[in-house]
Amino acid sequence: MKNRNKLKRSGIIWMTTGLLLLAAALFLTIRNLWQERRAGEAAYEISEAMLEAEPQMAASLAPAGAADDAPLVVKGDAVPDYVRFPGMEMPTVKIDGRDYIGLLEIPALELLLPIISEWSYGNLKLVPCRYSGSMYSGDLVIAGHNYRSQFASLIDLQPGDGVIFTDADGNVFPCQVAETEILGPTDIEAMESGDWDLTLFTCTVGGQNRVAVRCILEDS
After folding, report:
1. How many domains does the chain have?
2. Which residues of the chain fall short of a pLDDT of 50?
3. Which of 3, 20, 58, 104 is deepest in the core (most CB within 10 A)?
4. How far apart are CA 218 and CA 70, in angstroms?
5. Helix (H) or strand (E) segment spanning residue 165
6. CA angle 135-146-164, nearest 5°?
């Protein structure tokens, strides 16, 4: 009788544990879906706010699919400051207390994303962030979450696909995908190495690796 009661209690414990784990998994799934939806809505709203605040960005923003025809913007005959001083800070647009360095357009993935100037986990849940470098010095690294509204589909990009970065002053930097690398989750040195004008990266599902898309600036 005692053994039977013990087995019964054990069964109840295991069943309760299983239900709790199932509930936790369901909660995490719902939370992730909510965060992904929130990020997608935020990207749209912030992009619109940036274009309204900085008309030169709206004027310079290349239409989807036009990467092959989009030259670097040179205002008049003057050489832009970023060409003469590649070490200068990138200008920013402040929206809702956060500084943004520009807009990233990936026509093949139908994405238009604002880029926050400084990286943090909190910022990353909203929109992609500058991880390091600058478009002016030719070593900009941008991190994005693996949300479908951000960088989940980076792995689908092919060499030659266009990637367009428009800074807060309206300067357009049309790039092309050169290659895609799979790096370890903590391989920061490899992430920031190489002669790449622009790198986009995100974690794979589960965070086992990182997908890094390397881009080069098109000839002007």
Report:
1. 1
2. 27, 64-76
3. 104
4. 9
5. strand 162-167
6. 30
